[in-house]
Structures are given as structure tokens and as C-alpha cells.
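job 3f2a | input accepted
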Amino acid sequence: MLIQNKVKSQHFIQQLYKENKAYAPPLATDEMEYQLERFEEQLEAATKKLPKECRSNLTLSQQKILQSLKDNKDYIILPSDKNLGPAIMNRSVYKESVLTEHLTTDAYRHVPPDQATALLKKTAESLKFLYPQNKALLSKAECQYFERSFPEKHRTPMFYSVPKIHKKPIKFRPVVSCITSFNAIFSTWLDFKMKSLLQCIPTYLKDSNTLLQQLQDLPLLPPTARLFTADATAMYTNIETDTALEAFTFLFENYKEEIPSDFPKTLFL
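job 3f2a | predicted structure (269 res):
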């Protein structure tokens, strides 16, 4: 079989990869294309021999019960926190909990639809303006990511919450899903750039194994030594934007040797 020489791949960042929908790959050699067509024909022929319907491992009564729960608007089925499986609850209880614990608290502010639309448009225009001002400091892969993301269709972020079924009484974790929204273009890029700054944080731990290794490397501790853990309450809603900007500015000023000189600090902040 004849194989064409491989084209040298360009710089690739998996987290920021965006498909170029206008790109049409060139055909392979005649022999390669012929073999691919033969493979496709054999694959289609093989699939036709498979049963059209997959048999369920549930009984008929179990399927009917699940379908009735799915169709019943009095209940809501949603994932639980910490991947503990699906949960089902009264829709009215869910709505009341979302309002009292989150949406009607000081952490949120009601914005009329027309104002919300104007804010979303203003934010998108501001971010689009920032990109060309800082383009020179971005890699080719980053530029491709932004320029391929801007023309896509974007949706408004959606709020929902997941129950913490391991808590008594049950609490709810708020989630603002920004997937495929315009802001997600920049939040994804920010997450990518933040990972290069983690090494500058003295308390950073790569994973649980790193913690275990550091604990094993400690000198002999006295029998009265104790290990403590702590957790943040509503961490994200309690992080002031100005405080976060001060923290990153501190990193940029005090870890200049560790941070690349071409790091796009202005765009990042």
C-alpha cells in the first residue's frame, strides 16, 4: 500500500483546539482511498447483520415505571453532587430550595431581560476588542482558537443546582453552566493560562499522591501531632474580583523569573 509522506503537525494545544470547519483535507493516494472505501463497505455490511433493536436488561414493568417518572412533571431527575448518582425529588421542593438558598440571597441580583441582553452584548464586544490588542503575545494555536470560536453560535449561560445528598439536611450546589456561551471562550483560555501559574503558589499540590508523598517525607512527628483539614463556604461567590486581581498581580510582580516574559498579563487580568 502506498502512503504519502506525513505532513509535519503544527503546534497543538488540546484544551484550546477548535475544528476548522472550512478545512477540506486532501485526498490520499488512489490505493489508500480504494482501501478506505472497501473498509467502509464491509463495515456497513456488517452493521446490517446486527439486530435493529438492543434488548434492555430491565423488565417491562421497570421500564414503564422509569418512563412514568420521566414524564411526570411533579418530579425532577438530576445528577447529585460528587458523582453519587442520579437523584429524584419533588420539583416544587427543588424550586423552593434553589430560590431560598441561592437566587434570592445577596449572592445574586435580578436583572431584567433587556438589561441582561445589553450586558451580554457589551461583554462580548469588550472581549472581542481586547483580543486584537494583545494578539501579538499569543501563540498561533491560541489565535486560531479565538478566531474560530468567535463566529460560532453562542447561548446564554444557564443556572441550575445539584443536591448534596451526602449532607443532612440536603443542601444544593449552585452551577452556572457557561458551556458554548461567549464567555466560555475566554474562561477556557484563562483556565489554560492559569495552569502555568500554579507552580508559583507555595501551597499548590498536583494531586492526592503528591500530598501522601509529602506526608511520608515529613520527619518523625510527636505523638500529639494532629492533621487538620478545612473547607471553604461558598468559595466562588465569596471571592471578590478586586481581591482576585490583586492576587494575580502579586504573582506577576514577585515571580517574574518563573513566569515567561511573553505571558499576556494585560489580557489575562
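job 3f2a | Residues 109 and 213 are 45 Å apart (CA to CA).
job 3f2a | closed
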